[in-house]
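Researcher: Please translate sequence to structure tokens.
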Amino acid sequence: MDVGAAGIAIQSSYSKEAWEEMDTLVAYRDAAAQARLDGYAMSENEVIQGVTSLAVPIEQPGQAPAALAVVFATSTVDSYQPVIEALKLSAGRISQKLAH
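Model: Translation complete:
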């Protein structure tokens, strides 16, 4: 939970207060607070140099949070926005499927 976009996206499913109440021993990241606002998380060079990850939370009311992520060589993508939009759309579809 403390490294990478997927962990940030999962953490962003919680408020800082709710996260701290769970006593996970993992600090609530500033990036998770930003991801709550943006609706996605990003990690560049955090896990592997030259690699970027984008992730969005998958909403599952009453279930443990999950995330959908893509990982790619940073130099291969000119604009992250189309990837973010596709992730959000896909996560929404997954959430709908899980609800039924």
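Researcher: Any highlights?
Model: The chain is about 40% helix and 20% strand.
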